């Protein structure tokens, strides 16, 4: 086999065999395929597509280009993945809740991408926490606490790391086949027994329309199930931030408020919905609704909070973080309210614009080498349908400098639309696509 013949086959709108895709993925991983060939491959897939079987074959090939984890645990190994949104800190809630219900959750997560925050960046706002641990330590943490949220090592799906970098500079990021293979090659390398996919749709998501979100959800579930992992998807709304804060330490604070108070919130509701579907697929309960109720209960009674504290202590965080979390999280130098210019009702929120405002504050990366300021962001963001009086706060900006705070305040005013008539809340869950 050789790269040119595989690329030529794609150019003729023929799908390479599983063996050919496995050879190409290994070439991506070990350097046997050049950057030019990787770019041509990505463009050919983007233009012609792979079809369902080809997509599954590429996913498995990329998964198998590196280390595939194995487990010796006395319960189901399960995982969750989100396609990304603003104020989306579900992983920090769901992982400890699932562990409290008897599952093991080795959650391999990522850093911020574009306007969306990264789970690893959020956790690292907690002093002492490290998210880069090896397999031996990961095994130990799972046995001690039931869950660990960590970054991928260089040995996990190296073909994806190489192809992703090429896609970023060749305008092929949007390919449904390549998105699917990229997401699932890393998730399936953790060898979960079941997986749930939180596919976001709306102004704060990468997928703006329900049709696009549905196509992605169907491609992901079909591919993962073909690859041997029982997988379902839930399409959830991202027309407003899920939590009322954006920014790493601020989102951790929202999680801790919810976990330690036991109060219902959109964040708790979505976590329970995803957890219920996942527990049903893993055989931990009879129905998704039963699983949802169990997740909601461990959030409500504080057991998920206690489990989260154990998880953080196991990876270097403060031992008593859950009891005194507000003493540990960093605070910004400048904190100021953004005031409503008129009376009205919140009728639209541009979540992507809010996310980019946080990036501009230093809460995300504009280039890979940027350092993140964990303290900056937005908090106390009003929700769709809320009534507001002129001069009342729409949100609170947390910034490192006064000039940065002023720019963020202007971005917030541009992202929030007021109208003279009330609007209803969008549904939190649009669809379930079950295994």
Number of helices: 17
Cα gyration radius (Å): 22 Å
For this structure, the CATH topology of the largest domain is Pyrimidine Nucleoside Phosphorylase, Chain A, domain 2
Task: Tally the beta strands.
Answer: 12
Major beta sheet summary: 4 strands, mixed
What is the 3D form?
Answer: globular
> Into how many domains do the coordinates divide?
3
Order of helices and strands: HHHHEHEHHEHHEHEHHHHHEEHEEEHEE
Helix content: 40-55%
Query: How much beta, percentage-wise?
Result: 5-15%
What is the level 1 CATH name of the largest domain?
Alpha Beta
- CATH homologous group name of the largest domain: Nucleoside phosphorylase/phosphoribosyltransferase catalytic domain
Span of the ends, CA to CA: 35 Å
Low-confidence stretches: none
- Averaged pLDDT, please? 93
CATH hierarchy: architecture of the largest domain: 3-Layer(aba) Sandwich
Given helix and strand content, the structural type is: alpha/beta
- How are strands sequenced across the largest beta sheet? 1-4-5-12
